[in-house]
């Protein structure tokens, strides 16, 4: 029996309360008794002596039976003066707490309560706090990731802003003013491009001679390009008439105000009033003759009442006036006062002729690379000298200069400048687009600040939960030891193990597992030290029958009363 005395009693923590009730250690209606005890505790703590240990016991913790025992021990020292010769205390404080301890010990109500506290801490409070800590950590990681995204997004938007400003050729400090300043410098830039077109004389002559020799083309080729090459970026008037104007009156471009329409500018009429109901602002007698009469006409308009206008009406004369004929001779006004590269129509023609000349030079380079045969050499023997004098290197150099001029005239910056010159509202639109990029960058930075605050709140919440988890873990271990010691006293100080108690420590979970089964021989008839197992055993001694909580072997049986191991072995004949 000494071996039986050393066998541990293993109890699953989640079923601890059921285990106590099933073995009649506690009453099934312990909750109603504990509720009455809690009311007495709430009344008793209102009158307590000044003691630091009592303050610690009563501060922020659930007062259970073992706390009450400690309070009684402390009161024995503080209320010693009220003790009479019979060993009783006349102090009401002492009487109240002694009564509470007595009520706890009745029907072992205290054991059921602390078991309930342990189960709640292990099964609910601990996992809930761990989930909150895990959620706070996950939220911090998510917010940190979103902070980085906002920061990179803001930097990307600012890079886009400065890249767009670089395309326009501005710094971005004052977009609208800088764009307007660029438009003021546009005529001088176009004048310089017109001067650089003078280097295109040789390719123009080559193109003209080639078309005349091959196609017998008698009309001039690229007339606009030839004119700019000879005279530069002159006015449209000079291109149209052939002579420079004596007076140039450039059109004045006024900046239109933004379209801001308010309700004060809109006349809604008297739609909502009783007097104006049905009157939508249309009046017959307002001085406007709409040609509609409500009275029947006295004139006979025909058999069907329709006037087809076949009367003796005077014919309408339309006079066509050519553009510029109303201006005095020698005066360039309106579009005629613009330069060839400023006017959209003439600029488009100039660019088309540049591209036409570029394609000709590219095709000519390809042909010159394939003119090594005798047929090609004999074909160009009668060609003009300007064609025969061309070499591949000279054509490539001319093509490079032409492409440089074309690229400078058609790049993104020049396109925006032309659009700004044509429409002043384009400046407002471009400024608004660029401001939106900066505004989005600022919004992302503000969002990043908000996310940082939320991450700090999650960190503070985690910092508040971790000490609570440590405190709960300490109280859980304390309750575990007290319950194990109390149950051990009821079974002659046999060791008691509460299985499945979760160790709570900053989210680290450790579960106490069941040790391997012991090999205990049955009293009176050993059978080779086979392990005693309950339901689910895979191997039994010969002659033994499996049962839910006992093993039978040749008329002798062992009762497995607790847990996995044989907790109480009894021999029966």
TrEMBL record:
Cellular component (GO) terms are: endomembrane system
Example GO biological process: regulation of mitotic cell cycle
Region annotation (Disordered) maps to: 239-258
TM stretches of this protein: none
Tell me the InterPro entries matching this sequence.
CDK5RAP3
User: Which domain of life, per UniProt?
Assistant: Eukaryota
Q: Name one Pfam family in it.
A: CDK5RAP3
Q: Of which family is this protein a member?
A: Belongs to the CDK5RAP3 family.
**PANTHER family, sorted:** CDK5 REGULATORY SUBUNIT-ASSOCIATED PROTEIN 3 (PTHR14894)
Name the chain's protein: CDK5 regulatory subunit associated protein 3
Source organism: Conger conger
The taxonomic lineage of its organism, from the top, reads: Eukaryota, Metazoa, Chordata, Craniata, Vertebrata
